[in-house]
Amino acid sequence: MTKPILIFLAGTFMTLVAGAGTNAGSTSTIDINGPLELEASYIGDIYGNFAGGLKTGAGFLGMANLKIGFDTEKANWWKGGSFFINGASTHGKSPTENYIGDFQVVSNIDAGNLIYLHELWFKQSFDRFEFTVGLQDMNATFVASENGSYYLNSSFGVPPVISGNIPVPIFPLTGLGVSAIWNINDKLSWLAAMFDGSPTDFENNPYNLYWDWDADDGSFFISEIDYNRTINDYNGTYKGGVYYHTGGYEDDELGLKSQTIDQDFGFYFIGDQTIWKMNDNKKIDLFAQLAWSPGSINSHNFYVGGGFNFHGLLEREHENILGIAVAHAGFHRGFHKHETVIETFFKYQFNHYFSLQPDFQFIINPAGVEEKLNNVLIGFVRVGIQF
Questions:
Q1: Which terminus of the chain has fewer CB atoms gathered within 10 Å of its CB, N or C?
Q2: CA distance 275 to 10
Q3: What is the model's pTM?
Q4: Which domains are delineated in the chain?
Q5: Can you tell me the mean pLDDT for 116-132?
């Protein structure tokens, strides 16, 4: 039943927006320059594990997205409103599970074979305030580093102190929530959100169309302060935040409630800073990430990451970026040794539609399995297509 429901929702939405803002008697065609925005993209990872880990070998991962945005002001409805739908399809053999055995997950599109709804939300903006309600990806707004987003390893997205210890609504399994942003002034913003503490997993919710946020799920809260600064034309963004999970429960075989998620909390810091700039296309950016939670709660309780990106290394009209970064996941107790990833890449944007990104990661002490593994050297070629 879920496939027809998804098709029906998509069709209803397309029909609604197709007719928005039109006069009686006009044709119901979609004006791409009007209230409707469409975007389709595909990311493919060709990878090979050259040494270490579980075993050597090669494979492929892929992710397709279809995004539909709708602006209520452009539709002559009301000011400041927007709807957004993001459908996703992922496929391929997981390098982490089959070849590497790492804790931090080498590819940020590693999700299994899925066709599902990734986001479905409504946003309303006012003068300096906006709120969003619906199915959301937390990392689209919170704990996000602009420079870290170029890297393939998942730790440069949301630090594993957060994503590895509690169920947070990020790729691939997003969740219901309410979030808000208050732009206090041009430099300072406050962000806060509350999400379903335990979104229903894909085994019981294959298309992410079943949402059951009840008291047993608990709730996940996050709050962040963003500060933007510019000195001598060098832009910097600094973010500090705190998160808290209330804990979750489920019925055991005897029908009694047992705690499946402990109460958890922690802190994080994200910084992006330009340190050298010739022009908008040629510059060097640094970024840093820190995350911590109490060792009494989580065996993996601290993370440190960071690196630099050289934009415009080649004298070309198209965007090209060279980056190198380190991600370090620390364990307070248990059999794990600290896991460290060193990643380097070069991305070349051939045009608006197509990009290539060779990428190499050296993983010291892969810590995703109980057995001790040799250090890993894995290479990727990421292909990006966007329309």
A1: N
A2: 45
A3: 0.89
A4: 35-386 (2.40.160.180)
A5: 97
